[in-house]
């Protein structure tokens, strides 16, 4: 198990598999595939995965009495802002 920010995360092959499916669906959509027009399904899969992972992080932190809303938002900002500025 990896230790990230004092929270134990276990590698999940199933989540990586769902990410791969989502990426394939979005790429097929943007490639203009004539037999596939549901690229939004891939985006929906990503939203579900993100919601699951974020909820898991919050739940585990709350279970350990170490959840801080400010720190949670700060970590999200540090992850998103570099891409925004780029």
Helix content: 55-70%
Helix vs. strand class: mainly alpha
How would the global form be characterised?
elongated
Question: What would you report as the Rg, rounded to the nearest angstrom?
Answer: 16 Å
Explained architecture:
By secondary structure, the protein is mainly alpha-helical. The protein has one domain (about 10-85). The chain is about 70% helix and about 5% strand. The chain has three helices and two strands. Strands 1-2 form a two-stranded antiparallel sheet. A hairpin with a 2-residue loop joins strand 1 and strand 2. It is elongated and about 50 Å long. The model is unreliable at about 1-5 (pLDDT under 50).
Record the SSE blueprint.
Layout: E1 2-4, E2 7-9, H1 13-30, H2 39-63, H3 69-85
Antiparallel strand pairs: 1-2
Helix pairs in contact: 1-2
Please name the defining characteristics of this protein.
86 residues; mainly alpha; two-stranded antiparallel ribbon; 3 helices; elongated; disordered N terminus
What's the short version?
This protein is mainly alpha-helical.
């Amino acid at each position: 198990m990896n230790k990230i920010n004092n929270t134990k995360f276990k590698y999940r092959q199933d989540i990586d598999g769902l990410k791969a499916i989502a990426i394939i669906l979005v790429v097929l959509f943007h490639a203009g595939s004539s037999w596939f027009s549901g690229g939004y399904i891939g985006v929906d899969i990503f939203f579900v995965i993100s919601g699951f992972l974020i909820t898991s992080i919050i739940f585990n932190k709350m279970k350990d009495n170490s959840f801080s809303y400010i720190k949670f938002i700060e970590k999200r900002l540090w992850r998103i802002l570099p891409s925004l500025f780029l």
